[in-house]
Structures are given as structure tokens and as C-alpha cells.
């Protein structure tokens, strides 16, 4: 007997098996929801910093290096843009990403997925029950059986409770799954992006394959996760629905009807596939344009003051407008493409399918010999009223099943569009992961042949742990990202040894490669040839040309990149910090700003000179063995600059200073002069005749300036005299 024509289970719903299933599911999901709410309430009581620390501990457990090694072969870099679409490459990429989303069977996401699937099955089952109750109610209404009609209504309301619970749980679990995926992916990407080998720097400066990593990490990953989890319910449920409803219908409309339905799906899928535009590629382009627009805004925020000084608002306005209109033009073209596609899709799924469905529903009525049981049921009824009632019930049940089927089929077909969009986001996420993986192991984009100074041909050696900085035949070369590019030689084979206590000054014209030397020491730029020996990271500290002020409190500015926690662990105190600020002549800052805990946008608070003094304060706080100071006191007055250099030397820090200021010569023993003449360089001991000449030259310049002051003073006196005469 077909399921939908069986008499209903007359036990109250709460005594049925459904109730037991529901109770356990409700308990499991309630536990899940309780845990989530507990987490969120406890977090509201803590401070943001506590939250940051606790998040680090719980959510952000670092990905093991071994995991990256295992995953590397899964993420070869491919020319993704050419291959966007629902194809083998898409499924391969999705499979690779799935290794990150589901690292093993015992994760929360697997549990969520199972729970989600159970609710999806339940919803399908409930739809069948609803179809049966609906059929019964209408039959009783048509036959005028009031008591049965009321009983039917009672069941209708009873089923509404689990049905609504199921629906809201499906939505809840779908969102939980999406955020779970996002957390896993974001954590993985952060671990790959911000690690000891500074992949974030490489991806921005040594590689051009990822443009605007921020957009990839903040938006594209989120869209990918949302689409993936919604696609699961949009595909899994209708597939299940179709299986169950087809089975139900087969019993009522017979084999011929079912074959007809099956053929209908195949034809529809083929037609839709043939007319579907490449939504994946369009979605990938849209994501890129969104990224460009966002990057233009970020640049404006970062450089607001400089732009305002230059009165550059108008130009920036046009740049932003251009980025926006580029995006909108693309989105509009997608909308236009969608008009025809949606018309075709709607015609096929809503109208053609409904007509076909009505024909199938008519089979048991007009051609009962083509179906088995249901026709038997109808003909066995004796009175005409009963026959009408039975037909009505059969029709309503079939129609509802057919409608659910059409809905399920429609959703599956609509999902194809979503699948195509998912292919676009998958491409973006995959390309981010594959490029980061390749940069993590220093595989750069570049020419295949072994061309000198190409990023694919790095031959130099780096020895860490030396007491000193030693260049042996190391050329300083600009990195040149790109398939057929090689770097430009700035400094020819450098042979220099800076021993502990032997301070060195690097000088030379603008753009000659002074900072480039610091970049090579810091391993930001590759050592293309020769050998570089240097201390471990913890023994060497860099202060760059542009001062960087981090997010956080005043204390965080001085101790960067330490956290307050690190500082306490190291047994350091605020009193010590105060003494450091006295050395750099910034002792007035904590009082003026309201204490160490004050949080501000510090880059807008400090003056240029103050920012640089904070940089020196960091050096004194960290007290490394070696320091590379890159024009980091250019905005500080010479007297305070001198004090800071003397203090650094007293602390036993060996200095490698990059500067144009002859006033700094006296704090160093060696002078490395980069001449800019085909990469030539000279090393000399400070105190030589040449250096003396350089100092004499500076003295001469100062004396010349002083003479101008005298002339200006006498002119001022003259003007004063003239003015007093007139008055
Ligand atoms: N990421 C990069 N990629 C390619 N070339 C670069 C990059 N960064 C800097 N350069 C180039 O390398 C050269 C050396 O730059 P560097 O910053 O070392 O100059 P510098 O000697 O410190 O100059 P200044 O005295 O003006 O600070 C310059 O011509 C610069 O344009």
C-alpha cells in the first residue's frame, strides 16, 4: 500500500517515533546553542584585549608546519582564470580545500554536517506527511465528514511544531557550518600568510599573482563559505526530496509517469546547461573588481593627510569613481545576462513543469489501467461520493507531491547557477592558497630558464646564528616579479664584515640601494648569490625609514612587537619604559595622553620626530646585539639624535646606520659608500682624510649659513628703523 494512502498513525504525535528522534535532536542542538550562547555571554564580560588573547588560545591554534608540507602537493599553482567553471578542475580544487575544512572525521564541522543532514531528511519526511494530511483534510471536506475534518486539522497543527523547528534548525545549522568553514580557512590562511618567513611581505613585494590579499581573506573566503554551505542544503535536500517524492509518485502515477518525470529532468538539465552563461568566471571578475574598489578606499584612508595637503581630493575622487563604475558596469552586465537566462529558467521550471505535472496527475483519473494500487483504491470505492472523495484526496496528495517535486527539481536546477558561482569563489580561494603555499617554500613566479637575478634562480646561501653580519660576494638586486623578468643590480658583489662593536654607516645618493642592503640582511629580499652570515632574528632589530605605529595602547607602541603579556613575562615594568622615554625625550607623553593604557590612532597623534623617537625607544626596550637603523632619526633634532646614538652604543648595541648625515660619522668606525656607478662601493675607516674633508665641507656649509643669519639680522634692524621713523 502506498505510504500516502495508508491510514494515519492515530497515536498522538508526541508518542510516535518522531517524538523520540526529535527529543534527542533537540537535546543535541540545544546543547550546541547553549555552548554558543555561553561563549558569547562570557565574552561580553571580558575586555577586548582579553578576548583577543582568549581567541588566540582557543580558536586560533596554529597550523602545524607538517600539515602545510602535506598539503603543498594539493595546491599546485594553475592558471586559474582560464579554467573557471563547473569542470574537473573545479572539483579538484574543491577537494583540495575540503582537506582544510574537514581535517579529520572528528571535527565540529563533521558533526554539524551530520546533524544538518538529519534535519534535511526529517524535513523531507515531514513534507510527505504534510502532503498526506492535506489530501485527507480536503477529502473529508469534499465528502462533508466534519469530525474527521477536525481531526485532520488537529494533526495539521501538531505537525506544524516539528516542521517549524526543523526549518529553523536547518537555517541555524547552515549558518554554523558556514562560519565554521570560514574560521578554519581564515585561520589556515593567517598561519600561512603571517609566519616567520614573512609570506605577507613576499606576496606584496616579490610576487604579483595575488593582488589585494585583504579582499581575498576578508570577503572572498566568507562568500565561498556561505555559498558552499547554502549549496549543500540547496542540493542535498532537493536530491533527497526527489528520490522520496518520485518513489511516492511512482506508486500513484505508475512507471510510465515516473519515466516521463525522469526524462523531464534530464532534458531540463541539458537545456539549462547549454544556455547557462559562465557565472563562475563572472563571479571571479566581480570579486576582483570589488577588491580594487576597496583597495582604492584603503589607500585614501591610509594617506588622508598627505592627500589633503596636496589638495588631491579631486583626483582621488575620480580614481574612486573609476573603480566603482568599473565594478558597477560589470555587475550590470551580469544582470542583463541574467534576464534572458532567468526567463528561460522560469518558463521551463515553473510553467512547462507544472503543465507536465498536471498531465501526470491526470493519469490515475483518465487512464487508471496504467497505474496499480491507487486506481484500485479508486475503483473499489462503491458510492459516487466516495469515488469523488478518493479522487480528490489522490489528486490533492499527488498535486502537493508534484509541487514539492517541482520545487525540489527547480531548486536543483537553480543550484546549478549557484554551483557556477561557487566555482568562481573556489578559484579565488584556491589561487590565494596555492600562491601562499608556493611563497611559503620560496617558489616564486619567474622565468623557467636559469637567468641571473631571476626570482626562480636564487643561488645564495644564508647562515644564521653568526656573531656579526658578513657579506661574501653578495650582489644587492631588486626583485622583479613576473614570468620573464630579472632583477636590476644595485650593488655589485658586496664583501663586508661587521663585527660586534664595529659600527658601520652606509651612505650614498638616493635610490642607490642603501635600504636594499637592510632588506637583504632582513631576508626580505633574496640573496641571489654569495653567502650572507648574520645573527638570529632575536639578536637583530631594524628601525625602518617610515615609522610604524601599531593598533593598541601607548605602551604597545614602545614595546612593539611585544604584547603586554610578553612584557610581563620578561619581567619588564612601566618604570623601565618611562626611563626609556626620558632618554628619547618623550617623558611628557604618558601624562599628556592619559597613561600607558590610552588607545588612539597613534599615527595621527605623534609628530614626525616623535614617531621616530618612539622607534628608538623600541630599540632600547628590546636591547638587541645588532641594530639596523635606516634614516630613522632624519626628523629628530641633531642634539637628541646624538644622545640617542651615544646611548645605543653605551648599551653595547652594534649599529649599522643608513644615513646621509655627516653628523653621524663620529658614532661609527666604518663607512660603506655606495656610489651608484654601476653598482660600485667603497669601504673606508672613519677618521680618514676623505671623511675629514666631508666634515670640513659640512662645517663650511654651516658657517656659510651663519653668515646669512648675520646679514638677515642687520636687514631686520634696518626694517625696524624704517618702521619706527614712519610711525
Ligand atoms: N620592491 C621593489 N621592487 C623593485 N625595485 C625596488 C623595490 N623597492 C625599491 N626598489 C628600487 O630599488 C632602488 C634602491 O632602493 P632603496 O630603497 O634601497 O634606495 P635608498 O638608497 O635607500 O634611497 P633613499 O636614500 O632615497 O632612501 C630604487 O631605485 C628603488 O626604486
Automatic annotation (TrEMBL):
One of its GO terms (cellular component) is peroxisomal membrane. Residues 469-701 form the ABC transporter domain. The keyword Membrane applies. One of its GO terms (biological process) is very long-chain fatty acid catabolic process. Pfam families: ABC_membrane_2, ABC_tran. It comes from the Eukaryota. The chain crosses the membrane at residues 110-133, 153-173, 347-367. The keyword Ion transport does not apply. Belongs to the ABC transporter superfamily. ABCD family. Peroxisomal fatty acyl CoA transporter (TC 3.A.1.203) subfamily. This is ATP-binding cassette, subfamily D (ALD), member 2. It comes from Circinella minor.
Amino acid at each position: 500500500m502506498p505510504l500516502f494512502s495508508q491510514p494515519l498513525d492515530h497515536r498522538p504525535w508526541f508518542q510516535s517515533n518522531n517524538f523520540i528522534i526529535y527529543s534527542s535532536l533537540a537535546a543535541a542542538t540545544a546543547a550546541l546553542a547553549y555552548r554558543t550562547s555561553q561563549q558569547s555571554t562570557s565574552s561580553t564580560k571580558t575586555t577586548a584585549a582579553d578576548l583577543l588573547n582568549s581567541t588566540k588560545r582557543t580558536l586560533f591554534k596554529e597550523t602545524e608546519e607538517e600539515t602545510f608540507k602535506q598539503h603543498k602537493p594539493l595546491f599546485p599553482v594553475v592558471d586559474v582564470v582560464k579554467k573557471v567553471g563547473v569542470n574537473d578542475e573545479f572539483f579538484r580544487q574543491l577537494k583540495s580545500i575540503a582537506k582544510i575544512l574537514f581535517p579529520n572525521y572528528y571535527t565540529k564541522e563533521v558533526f554539524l554536517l551530520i546533524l544538518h543532514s538529519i534535519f534535511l531528511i526529517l524535513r523531507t519526511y515531514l513534507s510527505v506527511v504534510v502532503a498526506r494530511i492535506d489530501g485527507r483534510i480536503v477529502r473529508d471536506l469534499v465528502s462533508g465528514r466534519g469530525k474527521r475534518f477536525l481531526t485532520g486539522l488537529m494533526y495539521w497543527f501538531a505537525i506544524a511544531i516539528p516542521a517549524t523547528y526543523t526549518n529553523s534548525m536547518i537555517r541555524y545549522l547552515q549558518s554554523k557550518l558556514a562560519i565554521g568553514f570560514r574560521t578554519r580557512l581564515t585561520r589556515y590562511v593567517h598561519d600561512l600568510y603571517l609566519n616567520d618567513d614573512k609570506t605577507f611581505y613576499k606576496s606584496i613585494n616579490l610576487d604579483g599573482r595575488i593582488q589585494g590579499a585583504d579582499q581575498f581573506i576578508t570577503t572572498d573566503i566568507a562568500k565561498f563559505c556561505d555559498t558552499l554551505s547554502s549549496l549543500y542544503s540547496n542540493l542535498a535536500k532537493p536530491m533527497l526530496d526527489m528520490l522520496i517524492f518520485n518513489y511516492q509518485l511512482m506508486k500513484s502515477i505508475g512507471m510510465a509517469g515516473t519515466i516521463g518525470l525522469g526524462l523531464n529532468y534530464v532534458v531540463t538539465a541539458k537545456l539549462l546547461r547549454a544556455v547557462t552563461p559562465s557565472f563562475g568566471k563572472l563571479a571571479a571578475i566581480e570579486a576582483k573588481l570589488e577588491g580594487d574598489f576597496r583597495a582604492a578606499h584603503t589607500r585614501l584612508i591610509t594617506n588622508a593627510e598627505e592627500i589633503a595637503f596636496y589638495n588631491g581630493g579631486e583626483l582621488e575622487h575620480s580614481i574612486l569613481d573609476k573603480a566603482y563604475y568599473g565594478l558597477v558596469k560589470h555587475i550590470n552586465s551580469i544582470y542583463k545576462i541574467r534576464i534572458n537566462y532567468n526567463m528561460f529558467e522560469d518558463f521551463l521550471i515553473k510553467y512547462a513543469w507544472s503543465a507536465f505535472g498536471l498531465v501526470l496527475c491526470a493519469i490515475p483519473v483518465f487512464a487508471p489501467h496504467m497505474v496499480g494500487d491507487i486506481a484500485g483504491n479508486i475503483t473499489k470505492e462503491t458510492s459516487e461520493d466516495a469515488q469523488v472523495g478518493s479522487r480528490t484526496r489522490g489528486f490533492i496528495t499527488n498535486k502537493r507531491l508534484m509541487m514539492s517535486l517541482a520545487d525540489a527539481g527547480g531548486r536543483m536546477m537553480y543550484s546549478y547557477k549557484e554551483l557556477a558561482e561557487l566555482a568562481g569563489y573556489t578559484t579565488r580561494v584556491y589561487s590565494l592558497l596555492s600562491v601562499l603555499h608556493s611563497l611559503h617554500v620560496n617558489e616564486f613566479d619567474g622565468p623557467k630558464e636559469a637567468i641571473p637575478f631571476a626570482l626562480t634562480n636564487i643561488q645564495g646561501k644564508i647562515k644564521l646564528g653568526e656573531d656579526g653580519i658578513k657579506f661574501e660576494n653578495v650582489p644587492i638586486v631588486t626583485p622583479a616579479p613576473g614570468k620573464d623578468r630579472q632583477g636590476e643590480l644595485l650593488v655589485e658583489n658586496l664583501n663586508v664584515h661587521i663585527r660586534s662593536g664595529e659600527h658601520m654607516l652606509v651612505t650614498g645618493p638616493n635610490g642607490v640601494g642603501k635600504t636594499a642592503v637592510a632588506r637583504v640582511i632582513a631576508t626580505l629580499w633574496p640573496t641571489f648569490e654569495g653567502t650572507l652570515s648574520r645573527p638570529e632574528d632575536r639578536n637583530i632589530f631594524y628601525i625602518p625609514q617610515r615609522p610604524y605605529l601599531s593598533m593598541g595602547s601607548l605602551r604597545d607602541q614602545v614595546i612593539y612587537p611585544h604584547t603586554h603579556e610578553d612584557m610581563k613575562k620578561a619581567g619588564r615594568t612601566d618604570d623601565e619604559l618611562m626611563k626609556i622615554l626620558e632618554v628619547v625625550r618623550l617623558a611628557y607623553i604618558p601624562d599628556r595622553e592619559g597613561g600607558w593604557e590610552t588607545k588612539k590612532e597613534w599615527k595621527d597623534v605623534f609628530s614626525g620626530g616623535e614617531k621616530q623617537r618612539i622607534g628608538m625607544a623600541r630599540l632600547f626596550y628590546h636591547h638587541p646585539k645588532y641594530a639596523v637603523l635606516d634614516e630613522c632619526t632624519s626628523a629628530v633634532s641633531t642634539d637628541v639624535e646624538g644622545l640617542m646614538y651615544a646611548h645605543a652604543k653605551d648599551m653595547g648595541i652594534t649599529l649599522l646606520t643608513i644615513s646621509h648625515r655627516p653628523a653621524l660619522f663620529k658614532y661609527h668606525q666604518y663607512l660603506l659608500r655606495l656610489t651608484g656607478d654601476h653598482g660600485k662601493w667603497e669601504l673606508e675607516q672613519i677618521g680618514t682624510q676623505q671623511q675629514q674633508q666631508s666634515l670640513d665641507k659640512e662645517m663650511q656649509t654651516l658657517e656659510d649659513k651663519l653668515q646669512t643669519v648675520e646679514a638677515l639680522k642687520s636687514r631686520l634692524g634696518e626694517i625696524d628703523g624704517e618702521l619706527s621713523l614712519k610711525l
